Amino acid sequence: MRDFTIALTLTIALAGCAAAAPQSAALSSASKPVSPTAPQLAGTQWRFVALHGQSIPDEVHATLRFDDKGRASGRAGCNSYGGLFLAGGDGALHFEQMLSTKMACLQPAGAMGVERGVMDVLDHTAHARVENAEMTLLDVTGQPLATLKSDNASQ
Description:
With about 160 residues, this protein is an alpha+beta fold. It is built from three helices and nine strands, in the order H-H-E-E-E-E-E-E-H-E-E-E. Helix content is about 30%, strand content about 35%. Strands 1, 2, 3, 4, 5, 6, 7, 8 and 9 form a nine-stranded antiparallel β-sheet that branches.
């Protein structure tokens, strides 16, 4: 009976992994713009490369991760942050209850400016668009707020 229980548990776990993999791959390898849904975002990780049209300095690392429980988290340039995300099939994307640590970072240069920009973008995001492993976060009028590159290969 114990062997049967172990085999059943492994089968269920492997089936769950196999079912989740195509969603992330389909999202990051899309050749035309895609409006991501929550299941497609789950398990993906992104790196901010531009905020409000301005490139982020190479030394500053700002990231965004989506888990399968509706949580988003990452680094905003200096501090860690986390909260909830809601995604709809029409490309709607909203972040809620975002909290962050509150350290001041003098190095690398530009970290605190990026930090403010990331938190502002998360606060004003209304939609997302994904194309060729790049995600654009948009405001309610459809104007781009941030550009992120897929960082899933580093996981």
